[in-house]
TrEMBL record:
GO CC, any one term: mitochondrion
Annotated keywords: Ribonucleoprotein, Ribosomal protein
Gene3D superfamilies reported in the protein's UniProt record: 1.10.8.50, 30s ribosomal protein s13, domain 2 (4.10.910.10)
Family: Belongs to the universal ribosomal protein uS13 family.
GO BP term, example: translation
Lineage: Eukaryota, Viridiplantae, Streptophyta, Embryophyta, Tracheophyta
Keyword Ribosomal protein: yes
Designated name of the protein: Ribosomal protein S13
A family per Pfam: Ribosomal_S13
Organism expressing this protein natively: Macleaya cordata (Five-seeded plume-poppy)
Signal sequence segment: none
GO molecular function ontology, one term from the record: structural constituent of ribosome
Amino acid sequence: MATLLSKLAWIGVHYPKNHLLSSPLIFLPSYSSFFVLKFIHGLSFKCARVGGVEIPDNKRVEYSLQYIHGIGRARARQILCDVNIYNKKTYELSAKELVTLRDEVNKYLIGGDLRRFNALNIKRLENIKCFRGLKHVREEELRKYKEEKVERRRKKRALIRKKKEQESK
């Protein structure tokens, strides 16, 4: 058992309580060790990595795609229509379907690239010193209805201060 553990590479697997292997994490470099873990110890692992994110296996693909930053309900449905995958769970996908899904997802701006794109746009607004850029610098809300709400709060606080000043005199 110790030699098996010494040959394996780190990967995160959770064991049931009172399992033979005492370590919470095990290692997996070769197919033979995968075979031992799967059939002898009853552990199985499979995860789909799409767009740089590991998506859940036990959910429908439509919902598991939404774990990727930049893909919402509408875009996930559009991607699945383009790839012709309907009503499947992630673990039911074949290797070919997974490859086509990855290719389709990579056509969009997602993940870290999308975050970087948005951050650069905000920096541009701050550099040209437009209204929205200044709001970002001051970390204020950008939408008008929030401004009105904040203004009401300021007025209430000013009234409370005035009343306290009058009472103290």
